[in-house]
Amino acid sequence: MTSRETRTLVIAVILFGLAALLPFSGNGYYISIGVTIAMYVVLSTSWALFSGPTHYISLATAAFYGLGTMIVATGIEMVPYVVLLLISAVAGAVMAALVGLATLRLSGVYFVIFTLGLAEMIRQLVSWLQNNLGGSRGLYVLTDLTEEHIYWELLALAGFVFLIGWWIGRSRLGFAMRIIGNDETVAAHCGINTARSKILLFMVSGMVAALVGALLAPRWTYIEPNIAFSPLLSFEVVIMALLGGTKRLWGPLVGVIPFTILLEVIEANYPSQTILVLGIAFLLIVYLVPHGVVGRLEQSFAKFRKGGN
Amino acid sequence: MASGKTVLSVRGVTKQFGGLTAVDHVDFDVHEHEVVGIIGPNGSGKTTMMNLISGALKLTAGQITLQGSRISGLSAQDINRRGVSRTFQLVKMLPTLTVIENVMAGAVFGHKRRWGYEAEDFAHQMLNKVGIDSLANAPVSSLTYIDQKRLELARCLASEPEILLLDEWLAGLNPTELTTGIELIKTLRSEGRTVILVEHVMDAIRSLCDNCVVMNTGQKIAQGSPAKVLSDPEVIRAYLGDDDA
Amino acid sequence: MDILITGILLGGTYALIAMGLNLQYGVARIMNLANGEMLVAGAFAAFWTYTAGQVSPILAILFVAPLAFLVNWIIYRIILMPLIKRAKNQGQLEVDSILATFGMGFAFVGIMVATFGAEYFSYDYLGDGILIIGSTFALNRIIAFAAAVIICGLLYLWLYWSRPGTAVRAVAVNPQAAGLVGINVLRVSALAFALGGSLTAVGGSLISTFLTLDASIGVLFTMKALIIVIMGGVGDVRGVIVAALILGLAETAVATLIDPGLTLAAAYLIFILVLLFRPQGLFGKPTS
User: Fold this and answer.
1) Which of A230, A211, A91, A122 is nearest to A161 (CA)?
2) What is the nearest CA distance from B98 to chain A, expressed in angstroms?
3) Considering the domain boundaries, does residue A169 fall inside one?
4) Looking at beta carbons, which residues of chain B come within 8 Å of C92?
5) Does residue A158 fall inside a structural domain?
6) Does the CB of B118 have a partner CB in chain A at under 8 Å?
7) Is pLDDT of C124 > 80?
8) Which terminus of chain A has a lower count of CB atoms within 10 Å, N or C?
C-alpha cells in the first residue's frame, strides 16, 4: 500500500467513524435525513461502479430497490430478516444478470431503454401476482429495527461498497472496464470478454441496490408495490451520481449530500415541484458539469497548477 | 523457412456483404517463423481477410484453423486469447490510459496472461523493444504518429501472440519513419515471430516477406516469394490494368 | 376478432408515434426520451381546444402539426445543437441526448403539473360505437386510425418520391456520405427532428380522442415507441408499421385475455424476444 493510499484510508475511516456518531445526536430529523443520505450514497456509488466506466445509463435502480423491498415485505412473517437480506442480494444479482444477458451483448441504447421501463414492468407483474394469488396489495413490515439501526446498516453497506469499489479498481475486472470504456473493439481484440465483464459489474450494482431496498423496508412498515417501485428513484440516483462525478469512487458522494438536502427542502415546501427540479438538474448537468462537480474541480485544479508553473 | 510447421491455415474462406463477395474461396497457409504478406490493389479484400482472421468479422463460408484447431466462428476475444493479435489500419489506442497501461492491456488479458508487477515489467520490455520506453508514463495524446503505431505494436506483442497481424502498419509514415518501421519489423522477423502483414509499401514487402499472397477482387491470384509474384503477369495486370501487361 | 380489430386500430396510432421517434433517432441521431412528453403536449392541445372552443380534434391537428414542428425545430437548433457540436463520437452524443431529453421531459411534466395539475384529462368526442363484422367499435378509434394511416401514407410518399425525402433517407443511411454528395446534414437532421416531433404530437392529439391521459404518462409512450422502433429496425418505415401493429395486437390481447394492468409486461415480453432473436429489427439484416 502506498503512503497516499494509507492516507486516504485513514481519512475515510475517520469520516466513517464521524458519520456513525450521528444517531447519538438524538435529533430524529437529522437521523431521518441521515438515513436518506446514506441510502442515496450507497445507491449512487454502486450505480457509478457500473455506469461510470461503461457510460451506460442504468435506469433500473428502482427495479432492484423495489425487488429487495418486496422480498422483505412478502417474507417477513415467515423467514428471519437476515435470510431475507441474503435472498434480496441474490435476487438482485440474478435479475441484473438476466437484464445484462439480454442487453449488454448489444449496444448501450438497448440497455438504457430496457432499464427505463423495468421498474414499472415489475411493479405491474407484482401487483398482478398479488391480485391473483389471493394476497392483499399492502403488506406490513413490523420489526424492532429503528431508524438508528437502519442508518448504521446502510452505513456499513456504504463501507462495503467503497471497499468493493476500491478492490475492483485494483483488479483485472477494473482494468478491463477502463479499457472497455475507452474502446470496446480494442478491448475485445486484447482478449477481454467484454460482455461478461459488463454483466459481472452490473450484477454487483444490482445486488447492492436490492440490498438497500431490503434494508429500508422496515422504515415504511406498510408496503405496497406503488411505494416499493418509486419511479423517480432511478432518476434521482442518476442525477446525484452524475452531479458529483463518476470518475472517482467518492465522486457521487459529493453530489448526494447537497441534492438530498435540496430534495428535502423542495418536498417540504413545494411538493409538486420535485419533478421540475429533476428536469432542471438533468439539463444543468449536461450543459454545465458534464464530468460532475469533482471532474470540474479537478480540471480547474490542473489548469491552476499548469498556470502556476 | 517455409518448412516449419503450419501455424495458421485458411481454407475456402468466403465473406459476402449482401450481394458483394469481398473474399472469395481463399486458401493459404502460414508456417512457423514465416512473414507472409497479403498484397493487392485497393478493394481487393485484404483488410477483410485480416478482419476474418482476427474475428472482427464472421466468415460466410470456409474455415480458419490456428495450430490445428478451428478459430473461425469464435469471438474476437477468444481468437485473441488463442494467440492471434492484430494492429488496426487506423491506429486504435486507449486515450485515457497512459502509454504503459495501453501496453499492459495486452499483457494482462491476451494470449499469455500476466498480472501486477509481472505485467508491468513485461510491458516495459515491449516498449523497450519498439523503442519508446522513455515515454512509458506519458499520456497517449502526446505521442507522434509513428510512436502511436509503435505503441499499438507493443500492445500486441505484450500478449505474446502465436501470430501477429499487421494491417498497413507502415502506411502514413514519412521516409525516415518508414526506415525505422521496416527495421523494427525486421527485428521481429529475426526473433522468429510469425507475422501476416497487409501492405502497400513494395520496398517493405520485398525486404520483409518470405511469402506473398496476392489478392484481386476477393480472389487469390498468386502466391510465392515476393520476387516471383511481383513479376507474375497476372499480378501486374491486376495492379496496373490490361494496357500495361 | 374483437382483439384483432381493436389491436390494429391501436397499432395504427402507435405507428404514427413511433415513426416520429424513428425520424428523430434514425435520421437526426438523437435518442429523444422526451418523445412521450411531446405526445402528451399534442394530446393536451387537442383536449384544450375541444373543451375550450369545441374545436374538433381532427381540425386541431391542423395547428398542432405546424406548432409542434416549430417547437421541435427550435429544440434541435438551440438545445441539442451544442451537444452535437461537442460530441466526439456517437456514443457520447447518445448519452448526452438521453440526459438532455430526460431533462426536457421532466421539466415539461413539472410545468404541466404546476400549471394544470396532475389530474387525468379526457373528453368525449365521437364516442358512439359503430358496427364492424358483428362487433361494435368506437368511432373515435376508427377516425384516429384512418388519420394515422393517411399521415403515414403521405410520409411514405414524401420520403420515397420527393427530393427532400430522399435527402432524409440518405442521411439516415450514412450522414458522412450524405454530406459528401452535397446534402446539408445538419439542416436535414433538424428537419427530420422537427417533423418527427410533429408526427408524435399529432399522434398525441389522435390518441386523446379515445384514451385518458395525464401529464406524467409520457414516459410510458416513450417506452412503447422505443420498443416499436427497435423491433421495426431503426430507420425502417415498413418495419415500424409492422412492429406497431404487433405491439398494438399484443397489448390488446393481454389486456382482454389476462389483465389490463399487464400491458407494459406484454411490451417487454416482445422486447425481450426481439433482443434475443432479432436485435437488428424485423427486416434488418444481421450485421457482424
Assistant:
1) A211
2) 11
3) yes
4) none
5) yes
6) no
7) no
8) C
Interface pTM (ipTM) of the complex? 0.88
Distance from the Cα of A98 to chain C's closest Cα (Å) equals 11
Half-sphere exposure at residue A301, Cβ-oriented, CA atoms within 13 angstroms: 6
Q: Which domains does chain C have, with CATH numbers?
A: 2-277 (1.10.3470)
Which B residues in the span 156-175 are in contact with A, Cβ-Cβ below 8 Å? 159
Touching chains, C (3+ CB pairs < 8 A) = A, B
Contact criterion met (CB < 8 Å) for C288 and B58: yes
Work out how many CB contacts closer than 8 A connect A with C.
Answer: 120
Q: What is the pTM assigned to this prediction?
A: 0.89
Q: What is the pLDDT of residues C60-91, one digit of tens each?
A: 888 899 999 999 999 999 989 888 888 887 78
Contacts of B87 in chain A (CB under 8 A): none
CB A128, CB A147: distance < 8 Å: no
Determine, yes or no, domain membership for A4: no
CA distance linking residue B217 with residue B16, whole number of Å: 12
Nearest to A264 by CA among A36, A42, A41: A36
The model's pLDDT over A95-126, given as tens digits with 9 standing for 90+, comes to: 999 999 988 887 778 898 899 889 989 998 88
How many distinct structural domains can be found in chain A?
Answer: 1
Backbone dihedral region for residue A26 (phi beyond 0: left; psi -120 to 50: alpha; all else: beta): left
Between positions 72 and 111 of B, the ones with CB within 8 A of A are 75-77, 80-81, 85-86, 88, 92-97, 101, 104-106, 108-111
Interval B207-225: pLDDT, tens = 889 999 999 988 999 899 9
Task: Provide the residue range defining the domain that includes A148.
Answer: 32-308
Q: How far apart are CA A148 and CA A26, in angstroms?
A: 10
Let me know if residue A149 belongs to a domain.
yes
CATH number at residue A120: 1.10.3470
Q: Mark which residues 216-245 of B lie under 8 Å from A by CB.
A: none
Tell me which chain A residue has its CA closest to the CA of residue B106: A190
Query: In this complex, is the C-beta atom of C287 within 8 Å of any C-beta atom belonging to chain B?
Result: no
